[in-house]
Amino acid sequence: MMLAVWIGLLLFAAVCGCALLLTARAQRNIRASKHISMTAYGTYAQAQQDKHDLNLFGLAQQLRRRLGAAASFGLSFQSLGLTGAAFLLAGPALQKGGPSVVSIGLPVIALFGILVSASLAELSSAVPTAGGVYHWASAIGTRRRGWYAAWFQLAGHLAMMALMNGACAFILDKLFSVWLNYSSSWWSTGIALCFVTAVQAMINHWGTGRAGALQEAGIMLHAVVLAAVIGGIFIAFGRSVYSPKLLYTFQNASLDGHVTPWAFVVGMLVLQKLFLGMDGAAQGSEETSDPRIRVPWAIYLSSVYAMIGGFVLLMCLTLVLPAIVGTALFSSGDSLLAAAALDGWQGNTLVLLVIAAAIWGSGNSELLICSRAIFCLARDQAVPFSRLLSRVSREQQSPLPAIGTAALLSVLLFGAGRLVDGGEAGGIPSLLGFTVLCLQLSYMIPIWIKIKLHGRHRLLDDAPWRLGSYGLIVDRAAFIWLLLSGAVSVFALGLWGAVGTGLWFILVMALDRRYRKQHLAKLQSRLKRPKGEIIRIERKFHLH
C-alpha cells in the first residue's frame, strides 16, 4: 500500500519537474533570442513594435491593445475553466474511476496537457496574430490545413462556452427557484442561460480594456473559490476523511469494489477538459502588448497552474467523499463541488454565488475567444456574411457583430446538447465529447505540420519562446497523446460527441468548397498588401 502512495507522489513530482525543466529551457532561449521587448521604453514604443510585427503578416492593427501579461494569462486560465470543470466533472470522474483517477490519472493527463501547451506556445510566439491555430497552420503549412484547424477550434470553444454558461445558469436557476419559490425546469434554466450570455455580450461590447480587467479579476476569483471550497471542506469534515493510502488503490468511489481498467480510463479522460482551451490567449494576440512573449507564457503557465490547482482541489474533495451528502439544493450526484461547498459552509448560498461568478468569468473569456475566431475567419472571407462579421467598431475597437454571433451560436449549441441528451445531465455528455474531439483535432493539425518540418521553419526559427532541442520530442509526445486520447474519447465520452464532430466535419468540407477560391485569393492578396493600404485601414482607428 505504501509503495502505491510513494509511486503516486513521485508521479506528481515528476510532472512538476518536467514543467520546471521546460520553463527553464524556454526562458533561456528567450534571453538568447534577438527579440527585444520595448515595454521598458513605454507603451507607445511597445505598441509600435507590436504593430510592425502584425503588419508583416499583411494585417492592419484594428483592435486596441489593452491586455497585459496578467490579462493574457487570465484569458487562457479561465478558458481552461478550473472551477467550471470541477463543478461539472469531478462527480462523474470519481464515480467512474474512483479516487485513483485523481491521484494517478490526473498527473498523467497533466503531463501530456503541459506538453501540448508547450508545443502550442512555440507556435504562438512564431505567429503573434489573433487567428490561433488557424494562422499557425496556415503560416507554416497550407491554407487548407489552417481552414480545418480554424473551424474545429471555433466549434470546440463554442461548445466550451455553452458548457460554462450552462453550468452558471444551472446554479443561478437553482438559487432563484428557492428564493422566488418556483420549480426549476428546462425552460427556467434556458432563460437563465440567455440572461448570462446577454450580460457577457454587453460587457464585451464595451471593449478590450474592461474585458482585460475582468480577465485579471477572474484569476483572483478562481483562487478565492479554491480557498473557500477547500477551507470549508476541512472545517466541516476535517475528521471524516479517507486514509490517504486509499487514494492510490483502484477502488470505486463507494469503496465497495474495484474499478475496471476501462472505468478508470473513462474517468481519467473525463478530467482532460482541465487541459483543453489553453490556446485562448492566442485569440487575444492582436490586443496583447508584447504578444511574442506574453501569449506563449500565458498558454503554457495556464496549464501548469491548472494542474496544481486541480490536483489540490480534487484531492481534497476525494478525501472527504464519504461525508459529502449535499443539501436539498444540490446533491452530490448533481455536483460534487457544489454539494461539498454547501455542506462545508452549512448551507450558505454565498459560496455558490462566488462559484457561479467564477464559472461566468470562464464563459466570458470563451465569448472573447470565439468572437475573435469568427472575426479572423470573416476578415479572410472564410465565413458567410464576411463583410458584416469582419466589422470593427471605431469607438470600442471591438468586432461587435462577431461578438453577437458567438453569443447566439453558443446558446443554440447548448440547446442542441440538451436535445440530444434528452434533457438529462444538462447536455454535458454530448457537449463534452464534442468539445474534446474538436479541440484535439484543431491542436493536432499545426503540431503535425511542425513534426513534418522537423521544427524548422523561418517563422519558428525567429520565435523567441522556443524549446530548442526539446521541441521535437515535445511535439511528438503531444501529437501521440492527442491522437490516442482522441480515439479512445470517441467511445469513452459517448458516441454523440463523435457524431457531432463528424457532422461538423461534413459542414466544414461543404463550406470549403463554397469559399475556397475567395478565401485563398484573400490570403494571397493580404500577404502582398502594400504598406500604404495597411496605413489607410489603421487611420480609421485610434490606436493609442
Q: Sheet with the most strands?
A: none
Q: Which outline best applies?
A: globular
> What is the count of helical runs?
20
Helix/strand class: mainly alpha
Could you give the distance between the termini? 62 Å
Number of beta strands: 0
Report the sheet-strand fraction.
under 5%
What share of residues is helical?
Answer: over 70%
How much is the radius of gyration in Å?
A: 23 Å
Unreliable spans: none
Question: Quaternary status of these chains?
Answer: single chain
Overall pLDDT confidence:
87
Order of helices and strands: HHHHHHHHHHHHHHHHHHHH
Give the gist of this structure.
The chain has 544 residues and is an all-alpha fold. The chain contains 20 helices and no strands. It starts with a helix and ends in a 6-residue tail after the last helix.
